[in-house]
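Re: Re: token formats

Sure, here are both.
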Amino acid sequence: MKRVFFLVTIFLSLQAISQQKEVTITLDPITENIYMLTGQGGNIGVFKNEKGLFIIDDQFARLSDKILTKLKTVSNQPVTMVMNTHFHGDHTGGNENMTNQGATIFAQSNVRSRMENRQKEKGEIALASLPVITFNEGLQLYFNEENIQAYHVHNAHTDGDSLIYFVNGNVLHMGDTFFNGRYPFIDLNSGGSIQGYIKASEKALLIINDGTKIIPGHGTLATKKDLETFLAMLKEITANVQKEIDAGKSESDIAGNESITATYDAKGYGSGFINSERIRKTIYASLSN
């Protein structure tokens, strides 16, 4: 578990370092009223509607002005609603700035709890950054031309992950339960698990169809086929690690066994923040708990 904590510390440190770099904000249309915004941190979903702009996640606080400026190219209406897919700072860092602009923050209930507890640990309570509307298992939002469904998926990337589906637009935002073409970061210290991560992908595949466009937490816009490949990767590597555990192999044995992830290493899955050794260690730790 100490190694998992060290991994989380590295992840957060890299986030802090990356925030110092110059960032280009890109906004790509998916449908007439739904867009994907990329910058630094988690991909943002954008929905233009009669009430203003509904966005999914909001990256880092220092990027809020740039993000809001880019959103003006979509609509002069303000951001009125923000849905957080989970609590990590590269998805919720802009919450306070969005609240100060008049937005209402939504999230699964564990997101608020974890954000609040972290703030208490630091002795800095920022109420404006916290979700004010929370849900347990699901939420339905109705607009004139769109229905939005939020689904809580349990113990996947964290214990507060949500899948956000635009029914009419046929677009699914998966937050960090999907890293397109990369090995995922599974936050075991925050309730994440490989078993839950696999179930999250299976849940998503029950929601979508062949024409669905998928916004991943990180990576490029994806299709159902991309998600199916990602799920196959998770299952194959998990099965390989479990086989080694059953054979009595140690964490160090598994961490050093490149054959466990070789198929997907060759496809570039280990080129992101989570390399092949780290995903083997993470899955070992998850299966061993």
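Second one below.
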Amino acid sequence: MAQNATKIALITGSSRGLGRNTALALANKGVDVIVTYRSSEAEAKNVVSTIGEIGGKAVALQLDTSNTKTFDDFVVQIKQSLQDTWQTEQFDFLVNNAGIGVYAPFAETTEEEFDRLMNIHVKGVFFLTQKLLPLIKDGGRIVNLSSGLARFALPGYAAYGAMKGAIEVLTRYLAKELGQRQIAVNVVAPGAIETDFAEGAVRDNPEINNFIASQTALGRVGLPDDIGGAIASLLSEDNRWVNAQRIEVSGGMFL
């Protein structure tokens, strides 16, 4: 089997938002990308074509990270894509980015909302990573996405913040157990970012935007470009010795 010199990253939820930004940031550093999307195929294909314009290779595959029953078929598709596009059997980087936001006060959070968050943010990450382990190269990297909301508390995000807290603990366990394969595992925790996440509240609501900016040391709300580049940097060879760390990329929120 020919050894592929180009690094390959699999980024879940990379048709838009922070995932898309991360895919493009990695492509600009010469990393090829497997894009996943849940429903927005057209947006995912746009990311693939943009990466092609940069000079890289990319493929887009459908994946619902909330449904573990689909993971076996997804692994088969990944194997086929790796063979067809890169003539290889493994990839280098896994970025567990896919996610949704639910805003609901603790007293009003429904079991359905809780289960949906759990399935996407914890169960999905746990079992997708487990299924993909044989396809990740020894010496590869995993980056899990958390949130500033796992460190500070804002009313309305009890369930979401709790899920991200679970991911931060899981990250340390993965780093411990995958160390024998030289796989480093870290967590990146964005602060509030101007995207369509949570129905674009941070981006589109001036009151929320101004409040967050006033509570951030660098005096503004985060942008997608602030996050994608940070993840790409973390996956660079310069950061190979960073392991089991929580890296908050928030401009200094609520210090």
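The longest strand covers residues 136-145. The beta strands are 8-11, 32-37, 58-62, 91-96, 136-145, 184-190, 246-249.
- S.
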